[in-house]
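**Backbone description:**
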Amino acid sequence: MNIRPATPADAETIARQRDAMFLDMGEDAAKLARVHDSSLAWHRRALASGLYTGFLAERDGEVASDEVVGGAGLLWQDLPPNPDTPHHTRAYVMNVYVRPDQRGKGLARLLLERVLAECAAREVTLISLHASEAGRPLYEKLGFRPTNEMKLKLSPP
């Protein structure tokens, strides 16, 4: 496997993987279809601006998008320092996905190790994510721990 940085040209692949990830977690396909174009536009913009850094795993280093078998990304957050970090940049891990036929081979771990190496290279010391039940054991093995975060979803006007 070859793990390479994603470019804005990879936005469609990342958006498709993101849709597949949410489907695997039980989300409604119709709801995903409604936000796909917005998600694609966001990924193009975020990749181009550096707000998002993605990594894609390719079988045998091939560059065709159908040979991309997994991916993971980082959303860079600009937040004030707090008791857990003196730095203002934090990382949010997202879009971790491996194609079903490639699962169980350690690819998700390789992708996450690449993500964590990018954080270390940027001296980012506080990293968060939301874990699916399937992903939780791997994240815990890598040192992630549950926090006390809460969430409120407002209804649109």
Observations:
- Strands lie at 2-5, 52-58, 68-78, 89-98, 127-129.
